[in-house]
Amino acid sequence: MIDLEPLLFAVLSNIKKPIIFSFVLSLTVMFLGSFIHVAAVPIIYNVAHTALCNMNFDYKRYIGVTLKQGFAMMLVWAPFSINMGIILKYIPVNWSDIALPAFIFALLGICISCLCEYFTHMRKEKYSFAVSISVNKNKVAETTKKLVEYISCVLAFVVLMDRFTEHAAIDILILCSLTIPMIWAVMNKKHKSYIDTVKEHFNVKVPQLKNLYIIITTAGFLMLALRSVGFDEFLNNIFLTAMGNFGVISTMLIIIFIMMLSSWIGLHPFIAIAIICQNLNFANQIVSTEIYTYSLLVACSLSNLVSPTTISTAVISSLVDRNVFEVGVKWHILFIAAILLLFIGFLMILM
């Protein structure tokens, strides 16, 4: 209902430096991905591809890295991401209480992404950069106005519901997803377009999500099986022992590494996070729920980055014509190391 391409073209047409271009792309996919999830990736890729297709460097790898890392940072703070819904369902914390620190962390992560790209490729290969795109200024102004209004409306609704009602975070996110687009369409006199989009979603998109349904069903059966054999007690004892022997920061890093490894070998990150959240007793732990929440969000973000089974990896792999393991791991080793260092500093501030 909002044509984003004119706005994206207008923004990119004024950028002359590769590192700024990278920052804007990452920031854009982080913001748009917060509301339309992985659908933001092909939209932004198409605009970036149009802008860079005549450049004399490997622009597909450049765009792929930027979008993948920006999307990963989105998972750290976005209210509508699946991992956020899972985490807030099991951990007694409000999204509004963690949103600002998580958003700051995500912004710093994007800065790190740009610096890693600069020192590993831009500076060495000396990218020549000249973006020239014609834009319709009136359409850009209209799109910008609508986008700002929509995002402001969504965030205000989420924060108010989160702060002043007793509904679970996952219920609030579902309510927002169902009601706000419908209200927005009616206000802008595009209800017919909205109805057509809903019909298309149920007729075309929902059947395409059968793999996700299988993942969710599998996760449910797996968690029931684990609980039946006392896995929850075993997991809690491991974490308490680890904290006593290695400290809080080391234990949180262990969580991240376990999730990254399990995701890399094929276990979907959403299954991994659901297993941890459902079996871990956060009330009996010796650290605050906020620290657990931030740790699990970072774990989800990096697990999504390296996993060959996530939708974002599959989409970007298809767009840039590279295999999923190259898109998921090879491009991000330095970035992951830098994010872990940032996370250690983040935890030290919180503690």
Notes on the structure:
- The chain is mostly helical.
- It has one domain.
- Helices cover 79% and strands 0% of the residues.
- Helix 2 packs antiparallel against helix 6 and helix 11 crosses helix 12.
- It is globular.
- The mean pLDDT is 77.
In what range is the share of β-strand residues? under 5%
Distance between the termini: 44 Å
Please, how many domains? 1
Unreliable spans are none
**Helix content, binned percent:** over 70%
State Rg: 21 Å
Report the oligomer: single chain
Give the integer mean of the pLDDT values: 77
The major sheet is characterized as: none
Sketch the topology as an H/E string, one letter per element: HHHHHHHHHHHHHHHHH
Tell me the overall shape.
globular
Instruction: Briefly note the structural class of the backbone.
Output: mainly alpha
- How many helices? The count is 17
What is the strand tally?
0
Keyphrases for this structure?
351 residues; 17 helices; mainly alpha; globular
SSE blueprint:
Blueprint: H1 5-12, H2 18-36, H3 40-52, H4 59-77, H5 82-90, H6 95-125, H7 137-164, H8 169-187, H9 191-208, H10 210-228, H11 231-246, H12 248-264, H13 269-279, H14 289-306, H15 311-320, H16 324-328, H17 333-350
Helix pairs in contact: 1-3, 2-3, 2-4, 2-6, 3-4, 4-6, 4-14, 4-15, 5-13, 5-14, 6-17, 7-8, 8-9, 10-13, 11-12, 12-14, 14-17
How would you summarize this macromolecular structure in one to three sentences?
The protein contains 17 helices and no strands. It has 351 residues and is an all-alpha fold.
